[in-house]
Specification:
The chain is α/β, with parallel strands linked by helices. It contains 15 helices and 22 strands. Strand 12 and strand 13 form a beta hairpin. Helix 1 runs parallel beside helix 2, helix 13 crosses helix 14 and helix 14 crosses helix 15. The longest helix has 15 residues. It starts with a strand and ends in an 8-residue tail after the last helix. The N terminus is likely disordered.
């Protein structure tokens, strides 16, 4: 990735940003202790001395090698093979974000290395970098008096994120949720601002609106992009003055609440098209937060599945769920987990059951060939003299760098170097 820079003379240049370091996040394994581990470069195997040792009987003692900061994978002649996106790796294979790797009965998902996370934010489930980023945002900003605008596709956990902001804020008032897409324009004012008895036909008693109910707490406006324009103007006034006037009243009531809103509408586009007020957009967007589709954070899929009470999965079934596109996102996982809990009579979900219920997709992520560097440096799983020599040439004679390129320790590299000819 390139970015432009300028020095004190005003000269503009370009520097190469470092590529993100990838890790393989373990999401399914017979070895419970291995779950959620993040594998970096090194050897994966059943051997306790492996860089990433796993108690998996289907795994060979030295099964596969990860190298080049998690972007390459090489099978080490394993008995049961190494698989990427349900396709067997022949020799060296490239890895990319979102790939599903199988070694033995253990499954891992490739993701960017996590630098910050917060275990205190329990409302956000999953071990992906995207979920870790959201937990970090909540931990840092929950106590700040800033309006939060969560944008993302339907079913990506926007309400759970809003609840996390509320719980971590320390506010003692209620969390009040309003679905702006589910109220008609004629009832929106009464729902949000409340009304006095006799204000309109059917108003037989005073009613506190959602905003007043959230006093001292958090007001969550879901699907805010669907709020009619007249009510947008009234909401803006409430946010500016921090007071609310019920329908049919002339008396304003001071209120204190934290606003968190969510939408799957592209609000900047809605502003340009005149469907959403520009001044309201800037008022609510003090802290913009984006949620991502589940297909872009596959490391969360199985955690969500079990969070929703799904029964035990065989490795083949777990792999099939990981490779689905999940258009309904977490909501789709919840629906399937509940159904499988009923359908799995023996408490175990097999691939055959998924096929029977139409829960296995045939389309899978695109298969890539071996990475250029891996095929140049690795002719086969063994460290051949040709591979060692090529690595040294690529590293300009630096043996430590050559070992790193091959994904082995320096001691292993030295051990495989050809011995000097005694007669020479």
């Amino acid at each position: 990735m390139m970015k432009s820079t300028s020095d004190s003379t005003g000269e503009v240049g370009a520097v190469l940003e470092p590529k993100p370091r990838l890790r393989l996040i373990v999401v399914h394994s017979p070895d419970v202790a291995a779950l959620s581990r993040a594998w970096g470069d090194g050897v994966v195997g059943r051997d306790p001395l492996s860089d990433h040792a796993v108690g998996d009987d289907k795994m060979s003692r030295q099964h596969a090698r990860i190298s080049f900061d998690g972007t390459a994978l090489m099978d080490l002649g394993s008995r049961n093979g190494t698989w990427v996106n349900a396709r067997r790796v022949d020799g060296a294979g490239a890895l990319d974000i979102g790939d599903v790797v199988r070694v033995g009965d253990t499954l891992a998902v490739v993701d960017v290395e996590i630098d910050k996370d917060s275990s205190k934010v329990t409302e956000i489930t999953g071990s992906s970098r995207a979920s870790a980023r959201l937990r970090d945002i909540v931990a840092r900003y929950a106590g700040a008096d800033l309006s939060v605008c969560i944008m993302g596709p339907t079913g990506t956990g926007k309400e759970q994120l809003a609840k996390a902001f509320h719980r971590m804020s320390g506010r003692m008032g209620r969390f009040v949720a309003v679905n702006c897409g589910g109220i008609t324009s004629s009832l929106a004012q009464s729902e949000l601002f409340g009304h006095k008895r006799g204000a309109f036909t059917g108003a037989v008693a005073d009613r506190s609106g959602s905003i007043a109910t959230a006093d001292g707490g958090t007001l969550f406006l879901d699907e805010l992009g669907d709020l009619p324009r007249p009510e947008q103007a009234l909401l803006l006034r409430v946010l500016q003055d921090r007071e609310v006037v019920p329908v049919g009243s002339t008396t304003a009531k001071k209120i204190d609440f934290r606003l968190v809103c969510a939408t799957n509408v592209n609000l900047p586009s809605a502003v340009q098209e005149g469907r959403f007020r520009d001044d309201l957009y800037h008022r609510i967007n003090a802290l913009p937060v984006e949620t991502t589709p589940l297909r872009e954070r596959r490391a969360d899929i199985l955690a969500l599945y079990y969070h929703f009470g799904g029964p035990t999965l065989t490795t083949e079934a777990a792999q099939a769920l990981l490779l689905r596109t999940w258009p309904a996102n977490a909501r789709g996982v919840q629906t399937d987990a509940r159904r499988l809990k009923i359908e799995a009579s023996d408490g175990v979900v097999s691939l055959a059951l998924l096929k029977e219920l139409g829960m296995e997709e045939r389309s899978r992520p695109e298969s890539r060939g071996p990475p250029e560097r891996a095929t140049e440096l690795i002719e086969r799983p063994e460290l051949t003299p040709a591979a060692l020599q090529a690595a040294l040439e690529q590293s300009e004679g630096n043996r430590t760098e050559a070992a790193r390129r091959l994904g082995v320790s320096r001691a292993t590299f030295y051990r495989h170097l050809p011995k000097p000819d005694a007669g020479g």
